[in-house]
Amino acid sequence: MVFQRIVRAIGGDPNKREIERLSQIVEEINRFEDPFEALSNEALTQKTSEFKARLQEGETLDDLLPEAFAAVREASKRTLGLRHYDIQLIGGMNLHAGKIAEMRTGEGKTLVATLPLYLNALTGRGVHLVTVNDYLARRDARWMAPIYHLLGMKVGVLQMAARTENGQKAFLVDLEKPNAREDLHLLDLVDRSEAYQADIVYGTNSEFGFDYLRDNLTMSLAERVQRGHYYAIVDEVDNILIDEARTPLIISGPASDDTAEYVHMAQVVRALNPEDYEVNEKDRQVSLTEIGEAHVEEILGLPLRNPDRPEDVTPEQARLMGYLEQALRAQHLFRRNKDYIVQGGKVIIVDEFTGRLMPGRRWSEGLHQAVEAKEGVHIEPESVTYATITIQNYFRMYEKLAGMTGTALTEAEEFSKIYKLDVLPIPMNLEYVAAKADSPLIIVETKDAQNYPLQYYAQKDDPQKKPVFWRRQDFPDMVYRTEEGKLRAIVQEILHYYAMGRPQLVGTTSVEHSERLSTRLGSESIRRLAQALILRDAWLEKFNKSAELEIKELQALNRPLNELNVAELRPLARQAGLSSINPEDTELFNRLAKILDIQPQNHPRLMAVLQGGVPHQVLNARKHDEESQIIARAGAFGLVTIATNMAGRGVDIKLGGELNEEVLADVIRVLERAGVEDPFNMSNDRRRQELEKLSEEDYSIYAESVHTFIQYLEDMRRVRELGGLHVIGSERHEARRIDNQLRGRAARQGDPGSSRFYLSLEDELMRLFGGAQMESLMTRMKVDPSLPIESGLLGRMVEQAQERVEGNNFDVRKHLLEYDDVLNSQRQRIYGERDRAFQKEDLHEDILDILRTELNERIPKSLKDNEGPWKLLSFLEEVQPSMTFEAEGVRAPSYTLRLMVEETGRRLGKSTQEASIRQVLLQIAGEALQAEREHILSATRDLLQKTEETIHQLDRERQDSIDTFFEGLEDARDDETLPPRRPQEMLEELSNLTRTLLRLSSEELRALPEGDEEVKSKLSAQVTRALHLLAITRTIGSVERRIDDSLNLKPADLMDSPWEEVADQILKQVDAVLSKRADSLLAADGLLSQNIDAVMARTEKESVEENRLIDLLLNMSVGSKLAIDPRTHQRGMKRVILVNYIYYAARLIQDRPSAEITSEVLEHLEDIQQRLETVWGKIEFERFRLSGTPLQNLDSSIKTALQEQMDGETFDSMMESSPDALTPEMRAKLEVLLGRRIQNQIHRHILLSVISELWVDYLTRVDALRVSIGLEAFAQRDPLVQYKGQASEMFRTLLSDIRIGVISRMFLVQPRRPGAPATEKPAPEPAPLPGAVKPVTVQESNKKKRKRH
User: Fold this and answer.
1) How far is CA 12 from CA 4, 409, 430, in A?
2) How far is Cα 1255 from Cα 1015, in angstroms, rounded to an integer?
3) Would you say 751 and 470 are in contact if contact means Cβ atoms under 8 Å apart?
């Protein structure tokens, strides 16, 4: 801005020079007008094809601009009867250049936009016109559509979800589809994507933004609707890109419909004992102790984590832990009637600072649901954010962005810095025409009756200089001491102009202020105001006092009108010599009319106001359809409209009101029947002259429409004579452009009009920026509250205050943008990865790169683990479990099983005898059982040691509590002011402190208040004994679940033993149970031998082929036993692991180099991928064969690949064959291609699913970070720096989680087999190994579930 001022000082106004430059192009456009007028409609339509062809040949849009603009202007003249002014052409060129055109209200911005929209739509990339509400989107699209249709272009219209099947549909403008409903008139409902395929699309900022978010949630490219972000014109650009810039567009939904788990977990938490959890009030956290985890596992009958790999929980375990964590917080941290109340069956949060209830607000991440479960009320499903973007960041994605509004110059710096948009103020058409050297118009400057400056346009050759067009008259601001004084002055001005019949628009800054002002226009308030005005005037007249200073006797009149008491007014009236205070009495009425400056001919309208108030409309920008129609009529005779800034925005206010199109059509019919030539192109004044020549009989059935038309013109004439629309600003907005927008509603296109703002020193803007000091000065000077201050100094002070607020707001938005840019760049990265998954034809290498990256990081770290590489093998087992595909003859062993096959082969050597195979298998099984036994014993020792440490710590803490309690007893005995307490009450308190049920005899209870040492020792022993018993019980339970067998130990028998003996007993029993199990399994007639015999009986004898060894090792290791299902509580056979190979396999690789193992694992997994491709190819070929589909119907990409692999004759022969007739060689080639395609589809599905799911979780976490990061400021750290650092680290973790998510699914997702029902498993179930996960199908449920961590 400073630079522009310097430029103006040195080299003139750059805006003026730009207008002059564009004016030269206007002359070029005008030269095409005559040639284009000579074209037929068909030839004009063909111009579009010509322009597109020229673009293809290398011409640019700038080259085409003059002719394209001329084509649009000609189409507008033919279809709408509107010709673009030269200044509108300049506005169109500015928009095409990607700038903001600041154009006054009524200057035809809607028509201007047709020029650059058409020009840029020639590229075929689609252009967008963005409006502030649905009504304007469909109105403008319908209005301008005839232009586009004549030029061969389609127009799409986006509308809110309620009108378009939840955003699945949109509209195309169809001029042949009239409808009685305004919101469906000339609109054809189509798929959303079809609307976006139109050349030009109209819609709101929200709809465009939501479609972008929805597109990035789809799971297939075909579901996307948008086709990029090339060019957009934003109407009311200041409102959308400044006021709503920070507004987030959010797509959210229930995270899960399953609320039963919250109830279940609330019951579990209530069953816990005090020693099962620890409460940290300071950090607002509750955590389970190891004893507590064991207790929860006992209640649920499920493990909360794998004791062998506690750092890697399964998704199901993570889900349960999430529910459990929130249930613990709800139970122990959140108190009813403190943190929340229960009202009407709902949990309502209580604000911790103000104590106010906050209905509608909910705690996140399942906490609110946990509190609802705790209280037993209805549980509302949790909501989760699926996608979000701010308006600001959405529009910054467009390659070329432009905007138009009536007020943008005051925010030029923000537009430039954030959006790289320059603002060009476009002169009014009148100003542009008058500024030309050959213009017939001149500007006349004069004074009105009140000596205020007044400007209008007159003809140069008119000696009397009569007004032809007007400039808006902006009166100086009126500033009052008090809000009450201001409101009274506003109502007085409304009464003055209403009595005349002059239309008025009263602007407010909020719905609340609109309603308050509306109340002031009621009859009761107006009568009170009239009484106060009359009394004051009469009193001053009688006592000959000046009105400038505050008068003590009249101070009561300055109270708010609703506080004025008629009984208090009567004594004042008698002092003033009035016998009555009824404003309808003739004498008082005449005095009131004189005060309000109302002429006698307007007295009846004033009397009507006293009796019934001022008729008016209140608009609050909530019902755009209705309010747009109301605001269009706001210029009618005598109308008063109160509106907030955005109410009816985008709609012009015409003097005399809006003329119904049907009325105009009837008038034209009457004139046509009367033989009047071309009434369609006549001006309204000329039509009236022709109508007045006709008789009433000539009007026929259209008489009512004719009279309405004549009355409309008469009202327009009267309104113009009265001065046009008068705008009243009830207060200054903090942004100057908002004030300018309000003023701009008056004096449309040369109509007369005026504006005035009313302020008080109590207004927020004045109060914040010096109003208090001015109020103090005026109070000391005893200036009367009803006296206005009309001062240019005050006006400048207000503008300076506005500039300061605008600058501050810009700084805030710019600072917040830095926060937004962090998430925005991350969003672009994630959405870019989704786009790549959609668009890349072959994802095979991408998936392998993900696999290599993750394993190259994980394997070296895992091999350094002190416990050996068994955790690595367990992880690989989860990622790629063993799978058997009998029908296809393919085995896909896990890496662990592959190691066992290799070890078996190594031991067998060249032997193929059945006895040797049996012997080797049993040897390996024995060594595997021994390795597992040693591992379990080691893990049990660690558990016993940790439990001992925990018990000692808990015992110390509770003994400290006992000591503190007894010290308190001593202090209480010395304090005689404290009331005595019952011993039983003291024992209960101590039980709560130690979280132990304590018992004392009657005699010991009596000794408790005295602090008896023996009692203290007994209580201490009870606490220690209770903890000891609890530790024994929980440990035995945990170990039994780990080995899936009973230890045959009773806690009561071990309670009196020291912990060392207890630990020794448990270890001995574990060893005994495992040894007995091994002996049983390895016996000659044991289960392992039986399993081996069963496999040998059904497979080829004397074979050591890989598939046979895989089957032998797999089937040998599993068995079944009778068990109770924890969910259904029914008996059934449960599959169990007899031999766990992982710990033995870990010994086989523990001494090998890290690089060698990494290479081997990657090679193994790539081989498994190839095997799965083979299986998928065979399954897909079988599906194709059974469907009876000819090979000609193969996917084009597969046919192309086949064609590359064979000569033309062979390919043609293959295409003519049926699948059953293919040679083995042809079938093999086809299966390879089909398998690769299916694998690619699986990879695409996995990538999109994982990215989408984890991105949703990430949005929740990063939002929580944004909320909490403000606390960093208290630690003298920059919150923005901390936010960027932590968000970057979180994003790196997200990318790592995406890799793990992809890897964990890439070997598990399978296509459905041909003919299999939806409930059937798509492939043979893999033989289970420890940690194995069952494969899942691509056909996942549509119901979204949110993982809880």
Assistant:
1) 10, 17, 22
2) 60
3) yes
DSSP character string of 476-503 = PPEEESSHHHHHHHHHHHHHHHHHHT--
Helix (H) or strand (E) holding 200, with range, is: strand 200-204
pLDDT at 1129: 63
412's CB contacts (< 8 A; 6+ apart) are 1, 422, 423
Give the three-state DSSP class for 133.
coil
What does DSSP assign to residue 783? B
CA distance 609 to 1343: 61
Indicate the SS3 state at residue 828. Answer: helix
282 against 551, higher pLDDT: 551
Residue with the bigger pLDDT between 740 and 817: it is: 740
Query: Which residues, including other chains, have CB under 8 Å from residue 639's CB and lie 6 or more apart?
Result: 503, 504, 616, 617, 633, 657
Half-sphere exposure (Cβ direction) of 797: Cα atoms closer than 13 Å: 18
649 residue type, one letter: R
Give pLDDT tens digits for 39-49.
999 999 999 99
Please count the residues of the chain: 1349
- Which of 870, 871, 898 shows the shortest CA–CA distance to 883? 898
Pairing outcome for strands 169-173 and 187-191: antiparallel
Rounded Cα distance, 407 and 414, in Å? 13
Residue 400 makes CB contacts below 8 A (sequence gap 6+) with 98, 120, 230, 231, 232
Greatest Cα pair distance in the chain: 134
Amino acid type, 1265: L
pLDDT of residue 779: 64
Other C-beta atoms lying within 10 Å of the C-beta of residue 169: 17
CB 1338 within 8 A of CB 1241: yes
Q: CA angle, 764 as apex, 758 and 766 as ends, to 5°?
A: 65
**pLDDT value of residue 1332:** 30
Contacts of 522 (CB under 8 A, 6+ apart): 613
Q: What Rg, from alpha-carbon coordinates, does the chain have?
A: 43
Distance CA 495, CA 501 (A): 10
Cα–Cα distance between 457 and 460 in angstroms, integer? 9
pLDDT surpasses 60 at 1275: no
Q: Which of 160-174, 586-600, 682-696, 1193-1207 has the lowest mean pLDDT?
A: 1193-1207
pLDDT tens digits for 555-596? 888 888 888 888 888 888 888 888 888 999 999 999 999 999
Region 866-882: mean pLDDT is: 90
DSSP bridge pairs for 459: 441
Task: Fill in the amino acid letter for 344.
Answer: G
Neighbour-count burial of 1179, counting CB atoms closer than 10 A to its CB (0-12 exposed, 13-18 middle, 19+ buried): buried
pLDDT reading at 102 higher than 90: yes
Least confident span in 506-515, 527-536, 584-593, 1271-1280: 1271-1280
Q: What is the pLDDT of residue 305?
A: 67
Sequence letter at residue 571: P
The two three-digit tokens of residue 1271, written as one number: 């606390």
Confidence of residue 841 (pLDDT cuts 50, 70, 90): confident
pLDDT score of 809 more than 50? yes
C-alpha to C-alpha distance for 1109 and 921, rounded to whole angstroms:
9
pLDDT digit string, tens, across residues 1031-1054: 898 889 888 888 888 899 999 999
Q: Is 1058 left (phi over 0), alpha (psi -120 to 50) or beta?
A: beta
Measured CA to CA, the distance from residue 145 to residue 79 in angstroms comes to 9
- Note the pLDDT of residue 1347: 33
3-state secondary structure 875-912: HHHHHCCCEEECCCCEEECCHHHHHHHHHHHHHHCCCC
**10 Å Cβ neighbour count for 831?**
18
The amino acid present at 398, given as its one-letter code, is: Y
Q: How far is CA 1225 from the centre of its chain?
A: 54
